[in-house]
Amino acid sequence: QVQLVESGGGLVQAGGSLRLSCAASGTIFSINIMSWYRQAPGKQRELVAAITSGGRTNYADSVKGRFTISRDNALSTVYLQMNSLKPEDTAVYYCNSVLRGGTGFWGQGTQVTVSS
Predict the structure, then answer these.
(1) Among 42, 30, 31, which residue's Cα sits nearest to residue 95?
(2) ∠ Cα 46 88 24 (to 5°)
(3) Cα–Cα distance between 51 and 57 in angstroms, integer?
């Protein structure tokens, strides 16, 4: 139904910035929510930020004030602007979409590593 391709990860020093992108293809008209999750070694996968088809956003407390989620063209592309990065932000970041009706899809993940 929906295919998600993430890009933009890499290695950055603490205090630096990265911008992740998630390009969606397929039945994008059915997407209700686009979100970013991350999973660090030894930790559970956690929600980082989400945006709805209506433009509502929410963020994990750990990234509020530093990360911004945005989208273009009815959720066809979703971005995560990450500023003031910390070593604790190191994780694999995954794009996720939820369609009307509750069906979910995952991207392949992109590695973000923040050095001290």
Answers:
(1) 31
(2) 45
(3) 4
DSSP line for 30-94: GEEEEEEEEE-TTS--EEEEEEETT--EEE-TTTTTTEEEEEETTTTEEEEEE-S--GGG-EEEE
Main-chain phi, psi angles of 29, to 5 degrees: -65, -15
19-65 tens-digit pLDDT? 999 999 998 888 899 999 999 999 999 999 999 988 999 999 999 99
**CA 6/CA 24 separation, integer angstroms:** 9
Contact between residue 92 and residue 55 where contact means Cβ atoms under 8 Å apart: no
What would the pLDDT profile of 62-100 be if each residue is shown by its tens digit?
Answer: 999 999 999 987 678 999 999 999 999 999 999 999 999
Neighbours of 90 (CB within 10 A): 18
